[in-house]
Amino acid sequence: MQCATHPTVETELACSRCEKAICPRCMIQTPVGARCRECANVRKIPTYNMGTDTFLRAAAGAIGAGAVLGTAWWIFIPLEGFFFGAIMGLAVGYGVGELVSLATNRRAGPPLQAIAVAGVGLAFVIRTGLLLASDAWVLETLRFDLTGLVALGVAAFVAAGRLR
Prior knowledge:
Elements: E1 28-30, E2 33-35, H1 37-40, H2 52-75, H3 82-103, H4 110-134, H5 138-143, H6 146-162
Antiparallel strand pairs: 1-2
Helix pairs in contact: 2-3, 2-4, 3-4, 3-6, 4-6
């Protein structure tokens, strides 16, 4: 018997539903036996199946969370030490990741992780911009902003992990 999809391949396999001849390359293993692609009805997991509207909602959530959390990060800057910077990174990362997750109805995946990390980057840019606008001496401090960079790394890691 010849495979229905690949006529040059000889096979002894058949779909357990429609009895169409299939080769090992065409076969999809299901709990009820080997099936052809049509009968197996292979679909993406709904958590990772996204359209344009999902990406737009994710971007809106990331921009909103980044703006609000970046401003909050700037407000709490007088408390910032190395430890508080790491805590602030956890808070910003979790906040952005959670808001992107809520905006997309708990979807996940690499594209949403990238959007959330961009939202964290926006929060960092807003924090840095507000620092520059508020004090002239901050420009010298920003050159050695190790605490802010550590917080940025922690926040990006947490935001991406929230959407894994």
